[in-house]
Specification:
Layout (H helix, E strand, L loop, with lengths): L1 E13 L11 E4 L2 E6 L1 H15 L6 E4 L2 H12 L4 H15 L13 E4 H17 L4 H9 L2 H13 L2 H7 L15 E3 L2 E3 L5 E8 L13 E19 H9 L12 H16 L6 H4 L7 E7 L20 H20 L5 E6 L13 H12 L2
Antiparallel strand pairs: 1-9, 1-10, 2-3, 3-7, 4-5, 6-9, 7-9, 8-9, 10-11
């Protein structure tokens, strides 16, 4: 079962996502090069907003310093001398991390959940309590136990917190058991050709005298404006499996309140959260003008190909893009049959007829959630 989220959002002059040269990110697509916002950029801002909106749900940290800056201070605060704490944590880390560790700080940032930290600290405290004169031996004995190995394996899959449940564990190697990402995020791109301008700017020194003419600083930055198509897919069984620890085949038998809260918040954030670059000089705050939600069992499909031919820069671009998306969807349904079970729509461009009644975003989300658990 999948939830697909399609959005169209227009941004005025802004620099939403930069490359290594400081220029707006681009991607060739169809008959034109487009402005682009990377999925990494989008997910970072969505993740921050989710943590603000759902503070009661345990989350995690993406860091190289999990053992030295999260676990170690807590173990020391529990009254265990730092030298002993380091030796115990080294033993623990070499068990948890595939291939062991040369240093307690890892070579790459990895997402760890708050509940993982709780469990690892408790393991060390239990070892000290069980064998105060030789806690290292007690810890090694427990870690070699078959049931403890199973506990650690289960924890690494289900205790990564809210971010891990949605976006996976962010590992680029086999350091830890992977947590597959159920939320698949496409790079957002403009529905028309990239159109940018170099913004030349100067800075005046407030303390310059009348004789000291000229700017104290001069530079330039690329600014662009455009209508972006965004596309997100949620693999619902995998999402609920990550969130609750259940087998993905049992996802419909789980309690629904928590996953509904997370999905509702996620959709709201996708529709309303802007990337944060150059806030002070461009105020890049926009909200999606069209949000199409689809629920169904068939393999998802992007509607980006509705914009293979770049929309000409005239008339109302969001309304044109909404109509292009509707036309492409109708053609795909005509070829394959209906490609999703339930569709809900929120848009300010109500003259574009999708064959379903537009509603508020809240109503569209609630209808989609009801369809998921119907």
């Amino acid at each position: 079962m999948f939830l697909q989220i399609h959005t169209l959002v227009s941004y005025p002059a802004s620099l939403l996502n930069r490359d290594d040269a400081g220029l707006a990110k681009r991607i060739p697509f169809g008959n034109a090069t487009r402005l682009r916002i990377s999925s990494q950029c989008l997910k970072r801002h969505w993740r921050d907003s989710l943590q603000e909106n759902l503070p009661d749900i345990p989350d995690g940290l993406r860091t190289r310093h999990f053992f030295t800056r999260v676990v170690l201070p807590r173990v020391v605060a529990a009254g265990i001398p730092e030298d002993s704490a380091r030796r115990l944590i080294e033993t623990l880390a070499n068990t948890v991390i595939t291939g062991g560790m040369k240093e307690l700080d890892m070579s790459q940032p990895v997402l760890f959940g708050a509940r993982e930290a709780d469990y690892l600290v408790r393991l060390i405290q239990d070892a000290v309590a069980a064998q105060p004169d030789n806690p290292l031996e007690a810890l090694k004995k427990r870690l070699s136990d078959k049931s403890e190995k199973e506990n650690l394996k289960a924890m690494s899959k289900s205790a990564t917190g809210l971010t891990g449940a949605l976006f996976g564990r962010f590992v680029t190697s086999d350091l830890l058991a992977r947590v597959d990402a159920p939320v698949h995020v496409a790079h957002a791109m403009t529905v028309h050709a990239a159109n940018t301008e170099m913004d030349y700017f100067t800075v005046v020194d407030d303390l310059s005298s009348d004789e000291e003419t000229g700017a104290a600083h001069a530079n330039q930055a690329e600014l662009g404006a455009g209508v972006f198509y965004g596309y997100v897919v949620v693999d619902l069984p995998l999402f609920i499996s990550n969130l609750t620890g259940c087998n993905r085949t049992e996802w419909k038998n789980q309690e629904t309140q928590l996953p509904k809260r997370v999905l509702e918040s996620l959709i709201h954030i996708i529709a309303s959260k802007s990337p944060g670059a150059k806030l002070g000089s461009t105020a890049p705050y926009s909200r999606a003008e069209t949000v199409l939600l689809e629920v169904g069992r068939e393999q998802p499909r992007t509607l980006a190909n509705a914009f293979l031919e770049a929309i000409p820069m005239k008339n109302h671009l969001v309304r044109q893009a909404t109509a292009c998306m509707r036309d492409y969807l109708n053609r795909m349904d005509g070829m394959y049959g209906r490609t999703s079970d339930v569709r809900t729509l929120a848009t300010i461009h109500e003259t574009v007829d999708f064959g379903i009644s537009p509603s508020s975003l809240d109503e569209a989300i609630q209808s989609a959630l009801e369809a998921i658990w119907s």
